[in-house]
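Slide 14.
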Amino acid sequence: MQSPLFGYTENQSQDRYTLQNPQMLRVTLAGHDDILARKGTMVAYQGMMEFDGEYQTPGQRRARAHTGEGLDLMRCSGQGTVFLANLAQHVHVVDVDRDGLTVDSAYVLALDSGLHWEAIAVDSQFGISGSGAYNLQISGQGKVALMTSGQPLMLQVTPDKYVNADADAVIAWSTSLRVQMQAQTSSSSVFRRRGNTGEGWELSFLGQGYALVQPSELLPPQNAAIGQGMAAQYGMGQHGAHGQNQGNIWSNR
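Slide 15: predicted structure.
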């Protein structure tokens, strides 16, 4: 049998994390270095591998219940190679260092089991779609595999050059950055969903670090309302940051 498909062979590498292709992650395990992966993302494996549901600590359960942010994970262990993918999204491997990484949990594909995470509030008077009122702050030494819809844009932030990005397109940013949320519309139209511009909430990043933006905005239906009443439709009330997440931090420990 002959076919161009036989050109898509396994990517040979000694690295722990390798991109098999832009939409698939290849992870090599040596028997003592488990990883945590999003549930249901294993597409193939070789060797003696085991997949178990990851136990959620009381801290993780509290974080999920109060913030909606959390990670549905499985533990991958053993000796061999596992291939991970999710809806053909583009995969990117990031080294988490002392600066830490803040990310929307919806874009995490896998991470080293030794990393620590906690849910933090994005300070604002209003809730937003996309990045959400809460995000995950990942710290420690290790790697995280992120997913984006299409090839992303990495924006460098310096003290003399801050960056603004649409909150619906932001994937992750350096934890060391200061973040402010604001509306792109004028004050007269801020209470109408995205005003007349098609633009809405944005995140402003200041300090030293980077912000990752994808070429896709995950928008809610224009007339969708979370909860009841006008306040809920525009991200205020009990579903807005002003109502529920002033300085709250929820840990997985």
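Speaker note: The radius of gyration is 20 Å.
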